[in-house]
Design brief:
This protein is an all-alpha fold and about 450 residues long. Helix content is about 70%, strand content about 0%.
């Protein structure tokens, strides 16, 4: 008797549509956890690659743009195809996805490089053409709002759809979409990164936004599959998230390759190595980043070698630490001879290096000279923006010398006098970063010096 080979094969292969909800949830949860583990692997084993992943105009940002663009495209197709989806909630979701996608690329500014209009140049904290950077909030407040948003997205639609009476009428009219249990893991992981991800204290916001875009793209696919086709066995399948990730990854790769490249890498590499990694005790990873910077001198900033010297000291590599700090001091002395206008910055950094070298008297002298230099500049300056930068420099020197009270007064004055939001935000972020170091390098930083204003 002849047996149809294809029929026999079909009896042994479980199609996505035949998998139970629990199996699909487990598979999608496994995919999201695998992505989480991959991010942790990059963070600890390849910290330089992690920085490039979360940098401006790099993988995470372009991935967020691609995810939102996929969400918009799928929803637009579904709305045009199915009249039942022409309700406020689906239309608003599509418009919101397009808005966020355009915000991610600053409405084309990242691609075409046009100048920011005056309103954005002065009111935007990054001087870019987008709206979301007009708003600033403390990280803990942003995290609380993110957690509330995840809870509402996961449970509020389910609760509303069970209501009766007038509320039921308005829910049906508005078209509140309920999250499928299959994609809730994606929203949960996005919420974790936006709130306080375990094991990651740098770049988490960018990763959270990426996961959120993937979650909303999955929601769009689920809406299209259930509403347009109208058959339960065509719901978001076990392989849909994997397929979505492949499409999103391909599109992101093309965008990364075809655009100018990541921005702000110098700042992010130095911040990661000097602050974020040491704050969590990961000195070996910090040294890996510093070694990469040393091999690529274009990423060196004024304090790179000073911070590397501190990290090497914490690793117990005292000879290397001393040699690195001596080299950093020579760099400052050379820069001071070449650029007298930047004297306060070089003197302040020299003071910090001298203290780390246990040359405390010389360190105190260098910091006093920095304070005097900025005090003289402040007395004769009439330019508002220049005065802000001088006050900021004064505050940095006071904080470096351990005079926290005076530093706070000076830095608040600088921030309040800032003529634009970008400088104000830079001062706020710098102060928050410096104060977050706590006792990471106790014994290697300056004792208080006399207050000077």
């Amino acid at each position: 008797m002849h047996v149809d080979g294809s029929s026999s094969l079909q009896r042994h292969v479980v199609s996505p549509a035949r998998l139970g909800t629990g199996a699909i949830i487990a598979l999608n949860l496994s995919l999201t956890l695998a992505a989480y583990v991959l991010i942790l692997y990059l963070y600890y084993q390849y910290p330089v690659a992690f920085v490039y992943f979360v940098a401006e105009d790099s993988w995470a940002e372009w991935g967020t743009f691609a995810g939102c663009l996929i969400c918009f495209t799928v929803l637009l197709w579904a709305i045009l195809k199915e009249p039942a989806l022409r309700k406020p909630s689906y239309i608003l979701l599509a418009v919101a996805a397009l808005f966020v996608a355009l915000e991610e690329i600053s409405w084309g500014q990242r691609i075409f490089g046009f100048e920011s209009p005056e309103l954005f140049a002065t009111g935007n904290i990054q001087a870019e053409t987008n709206f979301h950077n007009f708003i600033t909030m403390r990280p803990e407040i942003a995290g609380s709002l993110a957690s509330l948003g995840v809870v509402l997205l996961c449970f509020l639609p389910l609760w509303l759809r069970r209501r009766r009476g007038n509320l039921s009428y308005w829910v049906n009219w508005f078209g509140v979409p309920a999250l499928s249990l299959r994609i809730i893991p994606l929203f949960v992981v996005a919420g974790v990164f936006l709130i306080d991800p375990p094991g990651v204290n740098f770049g988490a916001g960018e990763i959270g936004e990426l996961f959120a875009s993937i979650a909303f793209a999955s929601l769009a696919l689920d809406i299209a599959a259930t509403k347009v086709r109208g058959r339960g066995n065509h719901r978001l399948s076990a392989y849909s998230v994997a397929g979505l990730l492949m499409v999103l990854g391909t599109l992101t790769f093309l965008l990364v390759r075809l655009t100018p490249g990541p921005q702000g890498v110098l700042e992010r590499l130095n911040e990661f190595a000097a602050y974020s990694l040491p704050a969590s005790g990961h000195y070996e990873q910090a040294e890996d980043v510093f070694a990469y910077i040393e091999r690529n001198p274009r990423f060196l900033d004024m304090e790179t070698r000073y911070h590397r010297g501190l990290v090497l000291s914490r690793l117990g590599r005292f000879d290397q630490s001393q040699a690195t700090l001596q080299r950093a001091l020579a760099d400052q002395q050379h820069a001071l001879a070449q650029d007298p206008e930047g004297s306060a910055d070089y003197l302040r950094t020299s003071g910090k290096i001298l203290f780390a070298l246990s040359r405390r008297q010389e360190a105190t002298v260098a910091l006093r000279r920095a304070l005097e230099f900025d005090g003289q500049r402040l007395a004769v300056s009439a330019n508002p923006e220049e005065r802000v930068h001088i006050l900021w420099s004064l505050g940095k020197t006071q904080l470096a010398g351990g005079d926290v009270e005076s530093a706070m007064v000076t830095l608040v004055e600088a921030r309040n006098a800032s003529p634009n939001r970008e400088t104000e935000e830079r001062i706020r972020r710098w102060l928050r970063r410096e104060m977050s170091r706590g006792d990471v390098f106790r014994g290697l930083t300056m004792d208080p010096v006399s207050r000077h204003r």
